[in-house]
Amino acid sequence: MAPKIVPSSFNSRCLTNLLLLYRTQPLSCSHSFSTSSNHCNSIQLQSNDPPLIFDPTTVRETLSSYCNDWRRAFEFFKWAETHHTFQHTTDTYNRMLDILGKYFEFDLSWDLIQRMSKNPVSYPDHTTFRIMFKRYVSAHLVNEAVGTYNRLGEFGLKDETSYCNLIDALCEFKHVIDAQDLCFWKNSELGLDKNTKIFNMILRGWFKLGWWSKCRDFWEEMDKRGVEKDLHSYSIYMDILCKSGKPWKAVKLYKEMKKKGIKLDVVAYNTVIRAVGLSEGVDFSIRVFREMRECGCEPNVVSHNTIIKLLCDNGRYREASKVLDKMLDKGCSPDVITYQCFFASLQQPKEILGLFDRMIVSGVRPRMDTFVMLMRKFGRWGFLRPVFIVWEKMEELGMSPNESAYNALIDALIDKGMLDVARKYDEEMLVKGLSPKPRAELGTKLLSNGASDDELLQA
């Protein structure tokens, strides 16, 4: 009987369920490719259907479902190949590398890369090494990341793209000083000493760190070095000025851009809308919003969210609601941030819960921080019933509460004097391996030699 090809999503669910069959079995994962675990060998599809053919998308999705358990992900990776004659592609290898890198399994990652290089179907690409840069730098192994770049000649990938990926990874994970040193040292050597893209990455890196004086110094350094600033340079620096509490300077920069004839895109306009709103008021932001449309730049969900937030911050909820309705009329779907703008400003529990239900019915799924925001807000107001309504909705949607959600609920219970119930949830947190806040009311003490909850979460 011929093999049956079924949709990827079905395959992925099937494979995930299959892996669940041995989830609690002891692992015998080996770093050797020639050896497979015994329990993997014994797994068979409990069906008389023809064997399934695994496509790369199915395998990638199944690996993603085990992204927090590298051993099981790796066992599946080997099992698919050895027992279903699946030939891994560059894409499935890259997904496995990302999972291994997350758990610092770099030696095993390099074994995979060497194996990839022996097969044209799975040959390493720029994405492969972008993953390696990202995982090394996120583990603060900067020298190893630079060493990886220096090895790329072996794979024919030591080029401008790889260099940009390295600089981007350093900036993304806050190693901006290293990125800047590398830029000033290597750029001339590579003929990239005036490469605007690389300078923009470093400028954005200083932005992520929130080092505003460094942002200003680097902005001026770009001029000294003769680097031509483009739309993205201006967008980043306008955002920096807004976040550093100088929105009027961002507006000035916007006017400078217009004089230079730089055509703004939706990202730049969104920054300008916020800057104008903060410095001159929401009515002026609405003018820029209209100008944006007139210039042929269609507002996106972020544009609408910015206007809605400015209106809500000024207590103009009816106008904000009209903007929400217009979004739907124009086919621009609201997201969770849209609704959170309302939740942050509305003052009536009934009104908030009504909008919360409307959000869910419309297909917008709340994030965990949405639930935490609402529970904290209702808890501060002393309304316990709405806190439980939100908690129950979280459980209905199949979301597992994190530390912040538990702590918001427990704080609300303690404020109402319901110590026994609060203690129950406090104990439930411990059973799940989460870190509850030390609370004198419940008789709990600081953990880890007096480390605070915040310190524990950052550890």
Keywords:
single chain, 459 residues, mainly alpha, disordered C terminus
Topology:
Layout: H1 8-20, H2 38-42, H3 56-65, H4 70-84, H5 90-102, H6 106-116, H7 126-138, H8 142-151, H9 160-172, H10 176-190, H11 196-209, H12 212-224, H13 231-243, H14 247-260, H15 266-280, H16 282-294, H17 301-313, H18 317-329, H19 336-345, H20 349-361, H21 368-381, H22 384-396, H23 403-415, H24 419-431, H25 453-458
Helix pairs in contact: 1-3, 3-4, 3-5, 4-5, 5-6, 5-7, 7-8, 7-9, 8-9, 9-10, 9-11, 10-11, 11-12, 11-13, 13-14, 13-15, 14-15, 15-16, 15-17, 16-17, 17-18, 17-19, 19-20, 19-21, 21-22, 21-23, 22-23, 23-24
Explain this structure to me?
The radius of gyration is 26 Å and the shape is globular. The N terminus and C terminus are likely disordered. The chain contains 25 helices and no strands. Helices cover 67% and strands 0% of the residues. The protein is mainly α and 459 residues long. The N and C termini lie far apart (55 Å). Helix 8 packs antiparallel against helix 9, helix 16 packs antiparallel against helix 17 and helix 21 packs antiparallel against helix 22. Among the domains are: 62 residues, no CATH class; 75 residues.
Q: What is the count of β-strands? A: 0
Secondary structure category: mainly alpha
Q: Could you name the ranges where pLDDT drops below 50 across 5 or more consecutive residues?
A: 1-10, 20-47, 446-459
Number of helices: 25
Q: What kind of sheet is the major sheet? A: none
Helix content: 55-70%
Strand content: under 5%
Shape: globular
Q: What is the residue-averaged pLDDT?
A: 85
Assembly state here? single chain
Distance between the termini: 55 Å
Keywords: Repeat
InterPro entries: PPR_rpt, TPR-like_helical_dom_sf
PPR repeats: 195-229, 230-264, 265-299, 300-334, 402-436
Protein name: Pentatricopeptide repeat-containing protein
